[in-house]
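[Q] Does anyone have a clean C-alpha cell version of this?
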Amino acid sequence: MIVESCCTTLEEALAAQQRGADRIELCADLAVGGVTPPRDLIREVVSALTIPVNVLIRCRVKPGMTDCFSISDFAYDASDIVQMIDDIEFCKSVGAAGIVVGALTPEGAIDLAAMRRLVAAARPLPVTFHRAFDVCTQDPFVALETVISLGCTRLLTSGQAPTAWDGRGTLALLVRRAGPRLIILVGRGVNSANLPSLAKETGAMEFHGTRIP
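[A] Here you go.
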C-alpha cells in the first residue's frame, strides 16, 4: 500500500516523511483545493526529502474558488497553459518526481488539447490526473479511458463523490476497469482510521490525504 501525503510546507513534508509517507504531493492554498506552490518551496522540499515529491500544477486562484470544485476551476485559457508548462519545466529542472495536473473544457469534458501539451511537457516524469476528474461531465468510465489514452500514470479521485468513502463503489469499479494500465489514487476524506476499510472496499493500493499517515 502506497500513502501519498498532501503537504504545503517544508515542515509538513518532513513530518510526513518521518511518519512513514511513501510520497508527497506538494501544493499551496488547500482552502481552494490546492494550486502550484512557490518555486522556492518546490526547490527546498525536493532537495530536503528522500521520498518522491510530486508537484501540483494548477495556476490560478479564481474569485469564489473553494475546495468544493466546479468545472470552471479547471478550464484554462492559452496563457494559463503557457504558465503551467513553464511551471512543469521548472519542476523537472529541480528534480521533482512527478506532475499532478488536470484540465477540463468549459463544458466539463477532459480538455484533450490542453492535456496533450501538459503531458508532453512533463515527459519523462509520470503524470497524475487530479480531481478535476470528479467534476467532469463525461461518463466516469469514458473519462477513465481518456485519461489512460493521454499517457497518465495515475488518477486521483474520490469516485466523483463528496468523499472517497461515499464513492467507494465507483472507485472499486474504476480500479477494476483500469487494471494494470493506470493507478487509481484514492483521495478526499482519507485518514488513518478509514484507510483499511477503503482499501478493502475498493481494491486500491494507493491513497492520498492530508491526514495520512
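[Q] Thanks! Anything notable?
[A] The CA atoms of residues 158 and 164 lie 4 Å apart.
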